[in-house]
Amino acid sequence: MRLDGKIALVTGAGSGFGAGIAQRFAAEGAKVACVDIDGAAAERVAAALGDNAIAIAADVGLAADVAASVAETRQRFGVPNVLVNNAGTTHRNKPLMEVTEEDFDRVFRVNVKSIFHYVREVAPLMRDAGGGAILNVSSTAALRPRPGLTWYNASKGAASLASKSLALELAPWKIRVNALCPVMGATGLLEHFMGVLDTPENRDRFIATIPLGRLSEASDIAAAALFLASDEAAFITGVDLPVDGGRTA
User: Fold this and answer.
1) Which of 114, 149, 236, 243 has the fewest CB atoms found within 10 Å of its own CB?
2) Residue 55 neighbours by CB under 8 Å, 6+ apart
3) What is the pTM assigned to this prediction?
């Protein structure tokens, strides 16, 4: 029960890495607010976790929705002392000049602006409660970018650098901030990252670039998130933690 007594808010918790993080946190004793733009997906995850989880539908790029999700978490559970900014999206892997302004705006709205909104809402609450931990789900794209994903890579670079700067600025408030950098996983975005059909042959091409020989799984990301959110990581802040099977080595 490494998160016993903790209250966590996890965005993008309706599927993929976010669902895995929410499940592991709840199993380790945390009360979890599962936030997702797909309210039905968040409900499914929260229902499976029982009384220690709630579902909240919110658009993480919209300030009013973010404020409402934090207010509901406070009302139901209390002030969150763990925030996981996991919600993310990408443009399809394609040549640079084919990426539209709409693609760009959507990617930065979800991957970067959401961090801005949630930090503004949650950090003062954490400060007044004595501190907390913020995890931003970045990507190996921030450390070793792949061609065809330039503006996605840039958004994750922003998430990683913001995490380091936030760690410095929020340290006096006893708030730790770290970034997780997963390699590609078998999530709903995989085909967009590859830019080709999700076939065994196409997966094999990408798996060949990962020394441990497989894609990441939600359980891998959840285990790393658990460590960084727990008191075991009390002296760790401002790091990018690759969860990548050796991809960035």
Assistant:
1) 236
2) 34, 36, 39, 42, 43, 45, 46, 47
3) 0.95
